[in-house]
Write a structure and sequence with these properties.
This is Isopenicillin N synthase family dioxygenase. By secondary structure, the protein is an alpha/beta fold. It is built from six helices and eleven strands. It has a single domain, classed as Jelly Rolls. The strands form five sheets. A three-stranded antiparallel β-sheet has the order 4-5-7, with helices on one face. A two-stranded parallel ribbon has the order 1-2. A two-stranded parallel ribbon has the order 3-6. A hairpin with a 3-residue loop joins strand 9 and strand 10. It is globular, with a radius of gyration of 18 Å.
């Protein structure tokens, strides 16, 4: 990728000098592609493998069983047809060729802390509908969600340094987050796609940042101005963060 999506080793942040160098590298990535790959992040690969395994096991269940956790008003759950992500850019396209299951970090809390404004119909106040099979699904998802929250906090602090701010500048702004965790399943196709139909339509992410895990099959692409779409190479043990619209503006 010619450094357009650089690989950044977060283990260098163990010293103050290293932390500043990492922040500078992240700043450069955010000002160009908005994407970078992190290694040395401290997330246990065993946890990543278990998260991948339970999510895949769920998606490979019969459609009727998966429908038990289908999303409904006031819930997070399975989107068997999530529409097209291209709509986030105001573009019209056929539905994306994937299934998505989503859970919110607040979604298993009591209603008073999940939706303190009383609006349980909003995405921020929605309750999680997570599958009972495989039986370890919920525990693994909670463990993974906690690991991603820790990594997100580390990255947000590096964003602060990259912006010339105190590393804790964003702490009180993310201490009660509304993040979601999503797993995408790119199921086998039953026929050729429709014109303009993609596995996941071109889009931006609306939040502060996204942390993406991609498996060895790859498939993630980013658009480079005046040079079209470029693949983000798979990096063993790495995550691909990207800047969301909220942080970009």
């Amino acid at each position: 990728m010619d450094g357009y999506v650089p690989v950044i080793d977060l283990s260098a942040t163990r010293t103050k000098a290293g932390e500043l160098l990492v922040a500078q590298a992240i700043s450069g990535a955010c000002e160009t592609s908005g994407f970078f790959t992190v290694v040395g992040h401290g997330v246990d690969q065993d946890l990543v493998d278990r998260m991948y395994a339970v999510s895949r096991a769920f998606f490979e269940r019969p459609a009727g069983e998966k429908a038990e956790v289908a999303v409904s008003p006031g819930t997070h759950g399975l989107y068997a047809d999530a529409g097209s992500a291209a709509k986030s850019l105001g573009n019209t396209a056929p539905p994306d060729l994937n299934e998505v299951i989503i859970a919110g970090v607040r979604g298993d809390r009591p209603v008073e802390s999940r939706a303190p404004d009383g609006n349980t119909a909003s995405p921020w106040g929605a309750v999680n509908r997570l599958p009972a099979t495989p039986p370890e699904f919920r525990a693994v998802w909670h463990e993974y969600m906690a690991a991603m929250e820790r990594l997100a906090t580390d990255l947000i602090r590096l964003f602060a340094l990259a912006l010339g701010l105190d590393r804790h500048f964003f702490d009180d702004k993310i201490d009660d987050g509304m993040s979601t965790l999503a797993a995408n399943y790119y199921h086998p196709l039953s026929g050729p796609p429709l014109p303009g139909q993609l596995r996941k339509g071109a889009h931006t992410d609306w939040g502060t940042l996204t942390i993406l895990y991609q498996d060895g099959a790859g498939g993630l692409e980013v658009e480079q101005k005046r040079r079209g779409w470029r693949e983000v190479p798979f990096t063993q043990g790495g995550f691909v963060p990207n800047v969301g619209d909220l942080m970009a503006f």
